[in-house]
Amino acid sequence: MKLDTKQQVILALYMEYQKDLPKMNEVNSEALNLDHEVFCVALEKLQTEGYITGFKTLAADNDRFYSVILDGVKLTRDGIDYVDNKFGIQKELSAEDKIKYLIKKCGMFGLIALKMFGGEILKTLTGI
Length: 128
Fold this sequence. Notes:
Blueprint: H1 5-17, H2 36-48, E1 52-53, E2 56-61, E3 64-69, E4 74-75, H3 77-87, H4 95-109, H5 112-126
């Protein structure tokens, strides 16, 4: 299975969401090893499709994004359900178990940046 950019971005947002105090601004193009403009377009698509709310651009000119604001981004119920269904995540799992499962899936898909991102979140959840 190959994930497109939009799926990678929503997966990263979902992982961040698992924290007790999510900081959505930690989900960024650098952390996911994505082109900044492609990352921004993926966020716009996710918001248009109703999977996230609160995405804003700070400055845009000639369809180019210079800065994005993710502090107010939230996954919608549809966004959470999309990730749960797409990746076969059992809703009753703990946040830690969900992240462990997704790290394993990312490794299988060859998504090294997402796997590392999930590893950092797992450290936060376990306190290690």
